[in-house]
Amino acid sequence: MEKPWLKYYEQGVPATIDYPDTVMPKVLADMARKHPDRTATLFKGAKLTYRELNELVDKFAAGLQKLGIKKGDRVAIHLPNCPQFPISYYATLRVGGIVVPCNPVYVAREMEHQLSDSGAEVIITLSAFYPLIKQIRDKTKLRHVIVTKIKTYFPGLLKLLFTLLMEKKEGHAVDISGDANTCWFQDVLAGAPTRPTPVDLDWDDTAVLMYTGGTTGVSKGAQLTHKNVLVNAVQCKHWLKTTRATEVVLTSVPLFHSYGMTTCMNHGVYTACTMILVPNPRDLKDVLESINKYHPTIYPGVPAMYVAINNDPGVLAGKYNVKSIRACVSGAAGLPVEVQKKFEEITGGKLVEGYGLSEATPVTHANPVFGENRVGTIGVPWPDTEAVIMDLDTGEKILPPGEVGELCIRGPQVMKGYWNMPEETANTLREGWLYTGDIAKMDEDGYFQIVDRKKDMILGAGGFNIYPREIEDVLYEHPKVKEVAAAGIPIAEKGERVKAYIVLKEGETATEEEIIQFCRENLAPYKVPKFVEFRTELPKTMVGKVLRRVLVEEEKKKMAGEA
Fold it and tell me: In 200-229, which positions are buried (b, 16+ CB within 10 angstroms) versus exposed (e)?
């Protein structure tokens, strides 16, 4: 097919890539041989070299085999960003297991669904999360629970202070003695052989079950193959022009999310980067201190975090040196233009919007980092990736440039299907195309723009389609607005009406009429919000994606109470 976007690729970025015939656990072993003393992870100041990380992965892999894990078995990882995550991840892949990353903020019902649906037999969990796993364990297929402590890889003094002052207070001190088939992470390592029994891995074998759709409905397990996870890491390396064994990646995006898994961890290992592990992605102080102290060159992030950095008094006062950052790709949600411009002014680095979804491991598009960045777009498809806009009525007609339809993607990073969901797979993967559920358009040059989520589209008065993101982008230009979300609120006998939820910048005040008037000046009448609500915060996923669905559910509950 014609690819008009190729002429906008930066010099040195190939249209197609010759991918190495390997898999990510072997890549880690290769990096340990080639760059043994290179720092692989930095966690609260404590370092693991690539040699040390690979040795721990070998030991833990052997420990999993000792527990009976074999090729195809599912192993759940229920951890924040800490060294135990990459150790568990690559160890599971090394023995042919399938990684099931779990969101640490999931409640019992959500965790039970994911563990039961995946059929996970082992889970590696943090001591603070253990009570939740203990509560639901009998309703799942878990045979073994491995518990680890957040302090395990802390440097000495911090570990002592944490033990004395924080461990019990913050719920990290748990007793697992007497609990059947439950053991400590360090005991698995201590009792394991030095290396696991080798397992043959094929590119088409499932490597990861990445659960997705929790923000829009029932969570589904996207089957990502060893080929998918390797390919997307290699594509990332070429797009960011990462120099091997020199870059430092700020890893605050959660590794349980496909975005963090690929752009931070797998891309990081493939290029022998140093990964600065930040356990809480919303801990702005930790993020800023990590930037100031360890000078990351690459910072994959989300708009909410860039907004926070832009508005931090310490950053504005020059307390933190944020000038080391050279490249940032923003994902998980649309990047407002004003946020992008201000972040680039503050850091001197390049911040571009990209796009992806868990079903594509996840990255499919991004703006050229040092080339032609078209603000407000998700950029162009990555190497070996094709994208088209299909009509919304039949989903079978490819639309010309400028017309709005559903974004569909084809490429080597696209999943092989949903776990145990043949109907959902058939609906999402059609004729080789991944139907994303996102409404978009492409310009003449092959730059794509996300208009909105199919499921977030508001059906306004007179039958007009209204896209929340368009309203949000306008409101981000208001000088008093820090964060905003727009959603369609059902009004009896009138369909949906637009409501804007706004978090103001610190010290600012505004009225509903002031906001609505600003929208009247910048939007067509049918797009202007009918209601405005000022809030101290917006509901978000742990990654930082605003949950419009939660806002709508809150409104429905209010209406039901009033009725």
Answer: ebebebbbbbbbbbbbeeebbbbbbbbbbb
**Burial letters for 474-485: b for 16+ Cβ neighbours within 10 Å, e otherwise?**
bbbebeebbbbb
Q: What's the CA gap between 485 and 475, in Å, rounded? A: 9
DSSP 537: -
- Give the mean pLDDT of the chain: 93
Domains along the chain? 4-10+20-437 (3.40.50.12780), 457-562 (3.30.300.30)
Burial-class residue 124 by CB neighbours within 10 Å (0-12, 13-18, 19+). buried
Tokens for 139? 């309703």
Q: Which residues contact 386 (CB under 8 A, 6 or more apart)?
A: 1, 3, 409, 410, 411
Q: Is the peptide bond before 362 cis (omega within 30 degrees of 0)?
A: yes
**E strands within 342-428?**
350-356, 363-366, 380-381, 386-390, 405-410
In Å, how far from its chain's centre is CA 353? 14
* Residues sharing a CB contact under 8 Å with residue 172, sequence separation 6 or more, in sequence order: 126, 127, 128, 149, 150, 151, 166
Q: What digits encode the pLDDT tens for the residues 269-312?
A: 999 999 999 999 889 999 999 999 999 999 999 888 898 999 99
Q: What is the pLDDT of residue 458?
A: 79
- From CA 213, how far away is CA 408, in angstroms rounded? 17
367 phi/psi in degrees, rounded to 5: -75, 145
Question: How far, in Å, are 43, 105, 124, 261, 279 from residue 85 at the CA level?
Answer: 12, 16, 9, 10, 10
- Give the integer Cα–Cα distance in Å for 377 and 443: 10
In 3D, which of 237, 230, 238 has the Cα closest to residue 9? Answer: 238
Please name the residues in contact with 525: beta carbons below 8 A apart, sequence gap of 6 or more.
none
